[in-house]
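Encode chain A's predicted structure.
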Amino acid sequence: MNSSEVKRQIREAAEVEEAAFYGGRAGDEWLKHLSALGTDQFKPFLEVAPWLIAVFVEKHGKDAEGNKRKNYYMNESVGIAVGFLLNALHQAGLATLTHTPNPMKFLSEILGRPSTERPYMLIVTGHPADDATVPKAALEKKPLNEIASFF
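Encoded structure for chain A:
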């Protein structure tokens, strides 16, 4: 299967989950907040972007003897690694969009990942479209003194 076909399958599966999300799974309050971003169930960028980076968390692995080995701090470790990756992509002049449809089991199926892994995030990567915008009013950030304490 070529990358265009994989991206099409991912878009179609993501849009099924997004239709359920925007159709009521998210709840009225969440949908109200999202409306300021102008998002909806349609995700054509999943086919347009040059790269989709699927990030998975490995729940457990195997030791040298082939015995099941639990992995600890999976979400924390993968979250830190994703942060480094996003920064590196930004430094390389690329735009990114973190996409986390819920549930994301379809990624495991489409990409043939083992049952020991679960999808964590899809990072849509490329150069922004000429008409791309960022809804700044919807993305207000708190001042540093409201989110951090320094000692």
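The first strand starts at residue 51 and ends at 58.
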